């Protein structure tokens, strides 16, 4: 197993390098780089893309450089444009910029935001509480609901309970998360009916003045609606996966043998079937958490006015703030690859019969 772990760790290097290289290369063809954004701001927030309607330039820094065809540069001294390019690093060839960027990232030096005057790491730390709250609680609730419900549906397969719960699950899965979030706001956040939960934010304005118990209550009071909205679609897939896993195991010979020996149905179900049926569910927990943590939070954060990583990534992309874009891409890409390895190790921990080294051999 040690050799497998070493191989997987070494594989992270070229994989992460490839991810960064592809995204860096694609950024070279995206119009409206950081220099153009800076010029547009200086000139009063003009449309940074206007100059590309008639075929603008396509050179640049981590993204795009500047050229004489860009309308935002008209009226500004060429020396000023050159100074901006030096400030953002656009005076160097793309290959040199890429390898300089990767060398800094390997040393975990992610630099500062172009437009926010704050380090990328500090900015990520500032946004983490919101994303962790949404990702962690959504994943835990999805598992706590899905596993018992899926087991009960498998045990009572074909019953009326199984039928109506399947209908409810399919309906929940079909509802878009953003639409359900708006519905929750209208019903429970003072939209048109009840003012039970707050409309925005992760905590109240006077949170620092509250006692420990009051802080906990205030935190869960604020996070309830966003978590419910982000969980509604996730538990449907997990429930059906749990049910199907249990049904597959229940039909196997070892279950028939255990029942023939006189073991109670509960003993058969939780003593023999559960471990095998839950292998995929338990081992995939890190991956599911990362998926909820880093994806699908933008709309929920926007609707509930939460300032998390989803909005950070979106705003950085729109503003062409490449230190944030590529810095977070490197961090989360590395975390995703490591979590993939952790998921494999959890498979082995749950079922020692799995041997990845033999499978690779």
From TrEMBL:
NCBIfam families noted in UniProt: PRK15133.1
Domain ABC transmembrane type-1: 128-347
Name by which UniProt lists this protein: Microcin ABC transporter permease
GO CC, any one term: plasma membrane
CDD domains per record: TM_PBP2 (cd06261)
Family: Belongs to the binding-protein-dependent transport system permease family.
Gene source species: Sulfitobacter alexandrii
PANTHER family to which the protein is assigned, alphabetical: INNER MEMBRANE ABC TRANSPORTER (PTHR30465), INNER MEMBRANE ABC TRANSPORTER PERMEASE PROTEIN YEJB (PTHR30465:SF66)
Transmembrane parts of this sequence: 134-151, 163-189, 219-242, 277-304, 324-350
Subcellular location: Cell inner membrane; Cell membrane
This protein's record includes keyword Transport: yes
Stretches of the chain forming a coiled coil according to its record: none
Primary residence: membrane
GO BP terms: microcin transport; transmembrane transport
Membrane topology term: Multi-pass membrane protein
Keyword line: Cell inner membrane, Cell membrane, Membrane, Transmembrane, Transmembrane helix, Transport
The organism's place on the tree of life at top rank: Bacteria
Oxidoreductase listed as a keyword: no
């Amino acid at each position: 197993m040690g050799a497998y772990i070493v191989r997987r760790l070494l594989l992270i290097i070229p994989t992460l390098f490839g991810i960064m290289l592809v995204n860096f290369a694609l950024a070279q063809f995206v119009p409206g780089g950081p220099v153009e954004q800076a010029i547009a701001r200086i000139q009063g927030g003009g449309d940074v893309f206007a100059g590309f309607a008639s075929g603008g330039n396509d050179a640049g820094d981590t993204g795009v450089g500047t050229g004489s065809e860009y309308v935002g540069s008209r009226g500004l001294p060429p020396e000023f444009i050159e100074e901006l390019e030096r400030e953002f690093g656009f005076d160097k060839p793309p290959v040199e910029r890429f390898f300089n960027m990767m060398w800094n990232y390997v040393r975990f030096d992610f630099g500062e935001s172009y437009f926010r005057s704050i380090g990328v790491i500090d900015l990520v730390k500032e946004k983490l509480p919101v994303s962790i709250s949404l990702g962690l609680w959504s994943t835990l609730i999805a598992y706590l609901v899905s596993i018992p419900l899926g087991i009960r549906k498998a045990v009572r397969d074909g019953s009326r309970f199984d039928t109506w719960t399947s209908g409810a699950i399919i309906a929940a899965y079909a509802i878009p998360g953003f639409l359900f979030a708006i519905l929750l706001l209208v019903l429970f956040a003072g939209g048109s009916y009840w003012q039970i939960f707050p409309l925005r934010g992760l905590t109240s304005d006077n949170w620092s003045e509250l006692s420990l118990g009051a802080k906990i209550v205030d935190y869960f009071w604020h996070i309830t609606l966003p978590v419910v909205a982000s969980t509604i679609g996730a538990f449907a897939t997990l429930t059906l996966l749990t049910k199907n896993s249990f049904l597959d195991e229940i039909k196997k010979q070892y279950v028939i043998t255990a029942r023939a020996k006189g073991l109670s149905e509960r003993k058969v179900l939780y003593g023999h079937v559960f471990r095998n049926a839950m292998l995929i569910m338990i081992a995939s927990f890190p991956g599911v958490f990362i998926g909820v943590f880093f994806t699908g939070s933008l709309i929920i954060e926007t609707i509930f006015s939460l300032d998390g990583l989803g909005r950070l990534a979106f705003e950085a992309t729109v503003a062409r703030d490449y230190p944030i874009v590529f810095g977070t891409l490197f961090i989360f890409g590395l975390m995703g690859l490591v979590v993939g390895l952790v998921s494999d190790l959890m498979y082995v921990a749950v079922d020692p019969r799995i041997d990845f080294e033999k499978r690779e051999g």
